[in-house]
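S.,

As promised, the manganese (II) ion run. Input:
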Amino acid sequence: MKIIVLGSSAGGGFPQWNCNCANCDRMRRGTLKAKARTQSSIAVSADGENWILINASPDILTQIQATPALQPGRYARDTGIAAVLLMDAQVDHTTGLLMLREGKPIPLYCTASVWDDLTTGLPLVPVLSHYCGVRWHPLPIRQDHLEAIELPGIDGIRFTPLALSSKAPPYSPHRENPHPGDNIGLMIENRASGKKVFYAPGLGEIEPHVEAAMRSADCLLVDGTFWSADEMIRLGFSSKHAADMGHLPQSGPGGMIECLDSMDAARKILIHINNTNPILDEDSEQHAALLRHGIEIAHDGMEITL
Ligand code: MLT
Ligand code: MN
Ligand code: ZN
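Predicted complex:
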């Protein structure tokens, strides 16, 4: 099973179009040792031919161009994207669906609450009904037990969605009334080898069922949005703490580094990295600290095989 990181940045990408934080400014000037990154998405396949796109980023066209496997030449019009699965209904994870409108009806796997948002607050589904159309396959979310599913056309892989305690996006009609399934984590298992990756680009809290899933995974591909809880506030960019945005910061007691230190997974990788995060600077002490803890930082084009 192969996972390709199509986009390793949080919303806005890196550098962000209007941002002059130290990272974005120095990146543009060419004085920062760092990699540019597009917005959050991965592709997964067991046969190398049929890929599931997990999250459809606004940067999807650039990401497809950078990934030959997603653009096979079997027919006059062709794609390696056999289906799309969404972790939430956020702008950075969904608006790339509009860029797929020239294709066939999109097989879309998402929870009922994400589908609800995409038919109301962010009405991508009604818009796309005038182009290719979307075929919804509900992702089951159970509170009492976890249910692994297989997706037709994506052979050799089992997917287990986990409800994460979080909030729906700002435009959701149920923003102030959280539903299980507003945001999910996903266990992705290679059926042949039994190897598992736990993927959660938006992870605000390590709840007991999440911790158990993380402990059973061979590879963790998890929320790397912010280094510190008040990163956006200190820079004057937002009044929200990391937790208000559904992200667990890396540093500090109870932070992501401490959590990952307690895990045995062979690989621990941060993804969905915000452009303000000092770990993007490869000369920073925060970057070095992650490496000392055996934690990798995802970059666009990174491939994980397991
Ligand atoms: C988030 O996950 O908090 C997002 O990246 C926000 C956004 O897309 O604007
Ligand atoms: Mn995001
Ligand atoms: Zn910035």
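Residues 10-11, 40, 90, 92, 272 surround manganese (II) ion (ligand 2) (CB under 6 Å). The CA atoms of residues 228 and 291 lie 17 Å apart.

- D.
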